[in-house]
Amino acid sequence: MTLNITVDLSKYHDGRLDEQLANSNVHVDSVILQTLHDFPRWENQGALLNYAPLGFDAIDGAYKNAATAAYYGVYHLAWQLFWSPPKLPNITIREFDDFLRPELKNKIVLTYPNDDDAVLFAFDLILQRHGIEWLDALLAQNPRWVRGTGTAVTLILTPNRTEAATFTSFTGFAPIPGSNYSFPTQTQFVTWPQTAAILKDAPHPEGAKLLHSFVLSPEFQQMRGWPVRHDVPVADNFSQLPLKDIPSTNPAAFGRFMADRGRVERLRFFLEDRIGSAQGLSPLVDDF
């Protein structure tokens, strides 16, 4: 079987799918996206196939339309506190306040929150806990702003770069030489279920059904880290607690945030007024 995968930002994928739907020319079988607010809209338009893959019943009810099986979370993503110990010797980052330490001035790299709604949600959670004073102090640290969440990691792992820490990226859970990561316990951090659907007019619906069943298989779920299925435990060698046992995150909260577009846009432009509009290459291209 040949599997064609197109990788891009969810905020671009959804517009392209809208164009295909408007032209009655759907050539995509499956979408797996961060833009969680799109799925109820597409379902209301009659664009999605109602299909419950293997493991659907065990997915958290907040991640799916249980009545129709038109869409459902398939794996978790999160933002980590990520840093380079070689660049920051004798420093451990555990909380967002650690980014205000004087040793981190001119060494922080962050993704523009006005360019990525999941990063924007991180700022929403931080500001709820720490207030505008925290943002003022962060900006005084002179962070570098980049478009891609991957770019921040690349810069931190590049030895001749000064960038040494971020809280707007996810590297997975496997150890990476020259780096460390943690998750805060005093402030809520972002986790969310990347969500999937099959198009009703998909050219290859059976292949899409097979893909979704594979992604929800216990083997794939454990490989990804935190399963979205409550009947699949984390892997024996997994270094983190199960999500249900971590009080400092709520994966269902991101979907509610994304659904409130007024709230999203108000925060986006509040932060853009403070840090400027997003500058740089495509978020998929590391911009040095």
From TrEMBL:
Which Gene3D superfamilies would you find in this protein's record? Periplasmic binding protein-like II
Q: What UniProt keywords are attached to this protein's entry?
A: Signal
A UniProt-annotated Pfam family = SBP_bac_11
| Identification of the protein by name | ABC-type Fe3+ transport system
